[in-house]
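Hello again, I could really use a second opinion on something today. I've been staring at a protein lately and its backbone has me curious. Can you walk me through what the tokens say about the fold? Take your time with it, there's no hurry, and the full record follows here:
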Amino acid sequence: MPLPRCELAPSSVISKKPLCSASNAALWWVVAATAAILAGVILFPPARELFHFGPLHGDDITVALAAGLIALLLLESAKRVVQPLFSVRNTEIVKR
């Protein structure tokens, strides 16, 4: 009797491509649109007042960019660690 197949995450959820690949056009469109809207809100004083944003200083931007870069690197490295575990588990289940 075969064992039921139980996966924590389907293989289609874990992308085999790097996040920063040029073929991920949808990601780049979303990032560009979000950055443009946020820059517009921060640079346009009436919009900045509407959302109660203050002016950004150099150290604020540095901290935000560093936190984003660290999060990206951690997620990409976690993907490289977790992805082989799922491929090994799937082949072992199929072999039984």
Notes: Confidence is low (pLDDT under 50) at residues 3-9. The helical segments are 25-43, 45-50, 58-95. The two ends are 10 Å apart (CA to CA). DSSP finds three helices and no strands in the chain.
